Amino acid sequence: MSTCEATIQQLFPPAHDRISWPEKSGITKIPYSIFSDRGVYEEEQEKIFKGPVWNYLCLEEEIPAPGDIRTTWVGETPVIVSRDHDGKLHAMVNRCAHKGALVCLKESDNRKSLTCIYHAWNYDLSGQLKSIAFEKGVVGKGGMPPNFDVSQHRLQPLRITSLYGLIFGTFSEATKPIEEYLGQKMSAFMKRNLDRPLKVLGKHSQVIHNNWKLYAENVRDSYHATLLHTFYTAFKVNRLDMDGGIILADDKWHHISYSKRNTHKLDEEYSSADVHSAKYKSSLAAPELIASWEEFEDGITHSIQTVFPNLVIQYTLNSLAIRYFVPRGVDKTELFWLFLGDKSDTDEQEHMRVMQSNLTGAAGLVALEDGCINSFVQRGTKTSPNESSFVEMGGTVAESNESSRATETSVRGFWYGYRNIMGFN
Ligand code: FES
Ligand SMILES: [Fe+2]
Q1: 176 lines ligand 1 (CB under 6 A)
Q2: CATH class given for the domain over 55-161
Q3: Of the bound ligands, which one is closest to the alpha carbon of residue 155?
Q4: Residue 4: count of CB within 10 angstroms of its CB
Q5: Which of 129, 198, 266, 408 has the most CB atoms within 10 Å of its CB?
Q6: Which CATH class is domain 183-422?
Q7: What ranges do the domains of the chain cover?
């Protein structure tokens, strides 16, 4: 290390030297400063989002035709995903090779090529520079130096891969092939839900006022659904007294939580607990809101699958959705939802999926509570950087548990992966 680098490290020590974790290698007490520290947030952009991970980018189905493009983000970095005229997929940073302006401004488009509006540098759909305006000057004067070579300039590419219609991108050469990254169990469950001709039924996004990791925790927190989401409990969509379990990936970064609605039996412990919505005797005036059909033979009627760092695959009743979340600042996150159907659905089945989409999302009957509760945690913790959470429901380790979801095992799994990638171990 040079003297200069050593001085920078002294002035700006990395998070793992600066943030004190309550227990060495522990995953049951999470320091609150991790959710509000600006330096940690910036380090995550490099070590996580630009690190050895596959970031979800978009669906192949969103860019089906040659010339289709879609803009998105990897962490805070703006990214373009394109399908070139030969049908090949590409991803590149949305940052002009001239002076860094955004090149694509729309969320989706169809273009012959990509032209930056600032000085008209023009790129092909793989991001390679093809031409620039006034290269030879104007009326014989000005222009680029004689040794200027368009082939030496391009939009910074990302490595990409596709699995079951989902396109992922990475900045790192160290990222493993996607099947290895996910592991056999995770990729088999993705296949169950997504390996079919997908159709986008609708999409929306919401800004939530919390650090991105609080959402990553929240979707792995299997035991809050029965308590916070009163609609699920009251109308028996998903409760802890249904059979279900948690499966963690071998490296613990990703998880699956699942339940089987048809196995519901009222548990005495559950009914006597202080879970008010479990005692509701009401019924829905419009039961068609959650009308569903048995789509799979495994009996699973609700599942949440996460792929580290930013992807969630939801299957509730028949509501199949992709959620992905983008950090917008240390205490701000944008959560995107894509509701999906199967191209072979009957009109009635598609109608059921659309009706069920009322359960989740910013204005939904259930998921609005998550946006709200995460901001409560952000607000509750930001002035207590030296305190920590207590995450011991279901034990202190991060292991699969196929007999109960009254556990925080997958939350601990997230922190295991996070500590590892951020160098906290
Ligand atoms: S910044 Fe894009 S052409 Fe100048
Ligand atoms: Fe929730």
Answers
A1: no
A2: mainly beta
A3: 1
A4: 8
A5: 408
A6: alpha beta
A7: 55-161, 183-422
